[in-house]
Amino acid sequence: MSALEIAASLNAxxxxxxxxxxxxxxxxxxxxxxxxxxxxxCRSDGDALILEFNEGETLxxxxxxxxxIQADTFSIAAATRVRWEWxxxxxxxxxxxxxxxxxxxxxxxxxxxxxxxxxxxxLEPTHTEKAVEML
Length: 135
Hints:
The protein is about 10% helix and about 45% strand.
């Protein structure tokens, strides 16, 4: 499925799509199960799938493959790059408060980076995990 086809499928499923905590190649965003992110809109731009969430977050998935949507499951098996952007929760939604985690799939390794500056992140993604999961 192309990014365009995945976006269309997700948009058709939005009312029933589960909310939950996110993992990127096995790396939790925040603590496990402490957030309930909800997708509000999907679109594509070339090979990128762009998902927008209820708190102004954005997830960009390049060359997504292996979409799974069920009542209790949302995942994308593979991608070349995943970028999660969010506003620091509890602060005004300004560009100074916009943060990201970015993951680049390089064969048997995932490079990870973030601009989070209020703690020392320990990003340890695993290439054998799914690119994106909502649990």
